[in-house]
Amino acid sequence: MFKILKYSFFDLMRSRWSYVYFLFYLILGFILFFLNNDVTKAVITLLNIIIVLTPLIGTIFGVMYYYSSREFTELLLAQPLKRSTIFLGQYLGLSLSLALSLIVGLGIPFILYGIFQSSAILDFATLLLIGGYLTFIFVALAFNIALSFNDKIKGFGFSILLWLFLAVIYDGIFLLSMVFFHDYPLDKFALGATMFNPIDLSRILILLKLDISALLGYTGAVFQKFFGTSMGMILSLCILSFWVILPTFFLVKKAQIKDF
Questions:
Q1: Number of folded domains in the chain?
Q2: What distance in Å separates the CA atoms of residue 69 and residue 245, rounded to the nearest whole number?
Q3: Residue 229 pLDDT class (50, 70, 90 cuts)
Q4: Neighbour tally for 71: CB within 10 Å
């Protein structure tokens, strides 16, 4: 698995799309500091970008990589190798390359502007951690979708629909339910509904870390009220870890029964 991971990782790091992804965050970081030297404000701005863009890039790259390397995967399947070894190696190689592009791309401008001397270093580290979580989660979801459909059009369509649902539609349904059932106690419902969306969880984790109560919204306020800032962060990290493990488990199961 390590050999496949290493091959996938270096193959993707040589890809021009990895350089584009890296340069995007690198330029974005310098632009944010050019407009405003406040590190905390830069972290808040990046939060709004990362929780939307990182899942989208992870989903698209995951589907693209699976379909473009299908012939190579079939060649590997002809060898005496476990299917779980092949697909886990490819999944980890892709996820690590995307996460590295994100971390290095944002890390360079923040280091040059003195993040290590700033009080916001933990906030920035949390932001990078969230970006890494979202990358691993949505690459795993993309691999699951690609394994479910041999047709590329269907695979791309369902992957974009999944991202759109979690990034936009889910929040709309959640807010409508809050409006229609505002007369009922909705604290437990809000907690449960938030756990089913890794993007919402990521947003709340950062906002709890920044302690910006005005931006927390209803679900974040519930987290803060019942768990406190530290407990809310720990719970969010545990659930995000579960969001990584569960799709990876289904990825292995689907790969074992997939008819190539």
A1: 1
A2: 23
A3: low
A4: 8
Longest dimension (CA), the chain: 61
Q: Which two tokens stand for residue 28?
A: 């974005």
Count of other CB atoms within 10 angstroms of residue 223: 25
Of all residues in the chain, what percent carry a pLDDT higher than 70? Answer: 88
Give the type of residue at 3: K
Tokens 């899942």 found at: 55
Q: How many Cα atoms are found within 13 Å in the side-chain-facing hemisphere of 74?
A: 6
Domain of 81, in residue numbers = 2-257
Interhelix angle 39-68/16-35, nearest 10 degrees: 170
Q: Assess contact for 65 and 12: CB atoms under 8 A.
A: yes
What's the whole-number mean pLDDT along residues 6-10? 76
Hey, is 41 helix, strand or coil?
A: helix
- Cα distance between residue 228 and residue 146, in whole Å: 39
Write phi, then psi, for 198 (nearest 5 degrees).
-65, -25
CA end-to-end distance (rounded Å), the chain: 20
For residue 199, give the amino acid letter: I
* Enclosing H/E stretch for 55: helix 39-68
- Which amino acid makes up residue 153? I
pLDDT single digits (tens) 109-139: 888 877 777 777 888 888 899 999 999 999 9
Give every CB contact of residue 60 below 8 A, 6+ residues apart in sequence.
142, 156, 159, 160
